[in-house]
Amino acid sequence: MIVAVDGPAASGKGTLARRIASALDFAYLDTGLLYRGVGVAVLDRGDSLDDAEAAIRAAQAFDPALMNDPRLRSEEASSAASKVAAIPGVRAAMLEFQRRFGHTPPGGKKGAVLDGRDIGTVIFPEADVKLFITASVEVRAERRHKELLGRGTPSIYARVLREMQERDQRDRSRSVAPMTIASDAVVIDTSAIDVEAAFQKAMAPVLEKISRQHRVR
Ligand SMILES: Nc1ncnc2c1ncn2[C@@H]1O[C@H](COP(=O)(O)OP(=O)(O)O)[C@@H](O)[C@H]1O
Ligand SMILES: Nc1ccn([C@@H]2O[C@H](COP(=O)(O)OP(=O)(O)O)[C@@H](O)[C@H]2O)c(=O)n1
């Protein structure tokens, strides 16, 4: 079973995807880390983020061990990720890894939850359940700002808001795999609900799908 969780930055999709995976004992993949990893690798090599060939080379040489690097959580990595993520060759290089993860989840798990921007539209258009998590950009910027301060990283709300608006715009308008809501996705707006309420809303279609699959068998 594959659960696709998409949505913009700081909408809460990672928190929900992790909780759904843990509740069902499924494998979890944060696909943003793939693009963050490529962005950081390009910067580490001293290449320009506008150099498509350099980004594609970094994507083809991608080492999944890099996904544990704490530098991937920086705002510099967020912005670098959304630049390299617009390059078709970078996305093509990441496709197989994600599909393999979903079809044969590590640890022999019976299913996988993946979060990102194009999981329900491009990576797994046939996903069993598709969730699109959203929230107002002001709420999302506030969450990210608090997260940065909580980690001891200096942060200015107005700047986080501006960078998030720029990133949303880039992610929505790119020609390859833009962030869009799949026609069969369940949309959850977390602007005014807490994590627990969002989790209940997210689990409803998942549990319904599981019970329908059991009835068919
Ligand atoms: N429903 C919610 N209400 C309030 N805060 C939330 C909610 N969901 C997530 N958060 C918080 O917002 C921040 C971003 O959440 P995260 O799941 O990392 O978002 P994303 O994966 O979409 O970038 C985290 O600090 C998280 O604890
Ligand atoms: N499936 C995905 C996941 C992330 N991304 C890109 O990677 C960037 C970082 O994604 P992320 O999910 O780690 O970012 P946050 O939502 O956690 O801020 C996004 O802004 C997208 O440009 C993507 O294009 N496709």
From TrEMBL:
Superkingdom classification of source: Bacteria
Protein name as catalogued: Cytidylate kinase
CC terms in the record's Gene Ontology section: cytoplasm
Binding site for ATP: 7-15
EC number(s) per entry: 2.7.4.25
Alphabetic keyword roster: ATP-binding, Cytoplasm, Kinase, Nucleotide-binding, Transferase
NCBIfam families: cmk
Gene3D superfamilies named among the record's database cross-references: P-loop containing nucleotide triphosphate hydrolases (3.40.50.300)
Domain Cytidylate kinase: 3-203
Enzyme kind, highest EC tier: transferase
Organism encoding this protein: Oceanibaculum pacificum
InterPro entries to which the protein is assigned, alphabetical: Cytidylate_kin, Cytidylate_kinase_dom, P-loop_NTPase
Similarity comment: Belongs to the cytidylate kinase family. Type 1 subfamily.
Entry-linked CDD domains: CMPK
Keyword match Transferase: yes
GO molecular function: ATP binding; CMP kinase activity; dCMP kinase activity
Reactions performed catalytically: CMP + ATP = CDP + ADP; dCMP + ATP = dCDP + ADP
Subcellular localization: Cytoplasm
